[in-house]
Amino acid sequence: MSNLSKFLTAFGFAAAIMGLGACSTNPATGQQSFTAFMSKEKEAEIGAEEHPKILKELGGAYDAIEVGAYIARIGSQLAALSELPNIQWRFTVLNDHRVNAFALPGGYVYITRGLLALAENESEVAGVLAHEIGHVTARHSAQRYSSAMAANIGMTVLGVLGSAAGVPSGVGRMANFGAQAALQQYSQGQELEADMLGVRYMTRAGYSPDGMTSFFKKLRAHRDLEAREQGRNSVSHNIMSTHPRTEDRIRQAIKLAKERTVKNPKVRRAAYLKAIDGLIFGDDPSQGVRRGRSFMHPDLRIAFAVPPGFVMFNSPRKVVAFGPEKSRIIFDMADPKEAKRVQSLTNYVGEAWGRHLNDLQRAERLEINGLQGATVQGRVSGQDGLRDVRLVVMRGDREKIFRFAFITKPSETRRLSIELRRTTFSFRRLSAKEAADIRPLRVRITTAKRDDTVASLAKRYPFERFQKEWFQLLNNMRLGDKIRPGQKIKMVTD
Hints:
Blueprint: H1 3-19, E1 23-25, E2 32-34, H2 40-57, H3 65-80, E3 90-94, E4 101-104, E5 108-112, H4 113-118, H5 122-137, H6 140-161, H7 170-184, H8 188-204, H9 210-230, H10 246-259, H11 269-276, E6 280-281, E7 289-291, E8 294-297, E9 302-305, E10 311-314, E11 319-322, E12 328-333, H12 336-341, H13 345-353, E13 364-368, E14 371-382, E15 385-397, E16 400-408, H14 410-426, E17 428-429, H15 432-436, E18 441-447, H16 454-458, H17 467-474, E19 488-493
Parallel strand pairs: 3-5
Antiparallel strand pairs: 1-2, 4-5, 6-18, 7-8, 8-9, 9-17, 10-11, 11-12, 12-16, 13-14, 14-15, 15-16, 18-19
Helix pairs in contact: 1-6, 3-5, 5-8, 5-9, 6-7, 8-10, 9-10
């Protein structure tokens, strides 16, 4: 068979596959879209399969039943006015302090309690939910999946043909790169389309579309404040990031808001603030809590402290602290099944956990506040260049191995070594009383008094830094705004 015949045969096979039911009419936009490889039934199946995984990875559902029911009512009202009112929509508040919202195919929509703390009114939350509903009704996941599958088919064809068809060897790898990118996140066009659909559903439900605009601005302010806490610039340039910049989305949302007017639009600030009164802010003790430079986990009965200048971030599976010169501290636990099999901590830290390190030194035994441990040092080469890595493990019980990874630039290792060593030896057991005394921070709605000011109220926020900035962000206040007597205020209290 000639090279040309091989090419035509392979190409014809791929074209035939991609031509079978390749396009469908988008129920939300009325336009043709490529969804050949994912039916609506498959979307529901994927959503049902991934839902428990999402709960496990992101802290589970927030257990305040009234908050979950409140958000579900808003979401269900919006979904009923969409082009897919009859699918089994599910709205879940995740027990996660981070500001986030997303959707799975099949009508699974998620919003974090961190986002609820940031929002000012019901209209803003409706804008977020409506946007995620738009991703589902426009079948964006089906489009991404089908495009990725088509790319993989193309990659397979190229692999079959190889150089015989005159195709450079690197093209196949680029096709795979494109498929991975398609699966990672929505495209710019899909994000903007979800914004457009979100405005449509909001206005149908009688909400002010300005809620979407105002929350986009809050997201930008929140991003900037978190960047200041970490000591970095808020804007990052990443070739893999296809989401439109927040500024572009704000401009688009403003345009859409002007095009769709609602008489006597719903904002419902009072009802919203009442609904979130008592909401956990920041870390849930069941996932460990940060207090200044200290991390404490009442269920695991452990605590440690990071050095000055390090900023901690907590998630259900690990704690990461960012320090000067791109230094990092990562704390987590070994898988319980893996921990049960470990007979020697020195072998584990050097031969199992540290097996990918270069220039590996001999593992050493440690004793840390009564706990048996081990440590090893090596190096790793990554996108940021060469890094020194010190691994530390401690045995809690048969199923618990606690782990630290300290990552530093070689030029900074010696300078930071004493402080990082202090973090290692700060690791200790909490007493029963210490564990019982740990309480979460909560959002409390209070009424401003005559003598209250931004400065006086911000001082009551239980944060070490940026008290005023956090107060202004959570209360939707700009520089120069004053407190009015009788004004409802979000406070964060322990």
